[in-house]
Amino acid sequence: MLKLNVKELRDRKPTKEELASVSRLPIYIVLDNVLDTYNIGGIFRLAEAVTASEVILCGESETPPSSRIHKAAVGTEEWVPWEYFPTAVEAVRRLKSANTRIIAVEQSEKSVPYMEIENCKLEIVNSAIAVVVGHETDGISKNVLDMADIIAEIPMLGVNKSLNVIVSAAIVTYKILESFKK
């Protein structure tokens, strides 16, 4: 398997053959109005690291090509398929129509601790999974939360109420990976 360092990722685009050779997992990462381009770039790095099928950018989220996304993504936005939807509702509706399970990462009265995702009555191993993260201040839109199969929350033990979007997405996505490896 090809392994590239940061300089190599930044300086070269993948060939069609290299892109076709990547075996992707049925994981989608949906950004619901994520505005910070460093978060968007970080999500591309995460998606590439876990061989996600696609990053889905929604609403006001900036899209590649963008020098700011490229800087944070270190070129991984060239390696990961991505798509844009005007709203996250439209993206989630399309994913659900393809029997993709939706896991929203958000604090909510309906949320479960992220460690319990696999204990929820949700078929993870044989299904595509979409991890949805939201706006840095406002979170995931209510309509998308209403469409989610699970709302997963990361416990906050200190005085801070929340984690950065990329950190939250990474924690939940790697938890989902555990289910794929069983």
TrEMBL record:
**Alphabetical UniProt keywords:** Methyltransferase, Transferase
A single GO molecular function term of this UniProt record: RNA binding
> Which GO BP terms sit in this record?
methylation; RNA processing
Q: Which domain of life is it from?
A: Bacteria
Q: Report the protein name in the record.
A: tRNA/rRNA methyltransferase SpoU type domain-containing protein
Protein's UniProt keywords contain Iron-sulfur = no
GO cellular-component terms in the record?
A: cytosol
Domain tRNA/rRNA methyltransferase SpoU type: residue ranges: 27-174
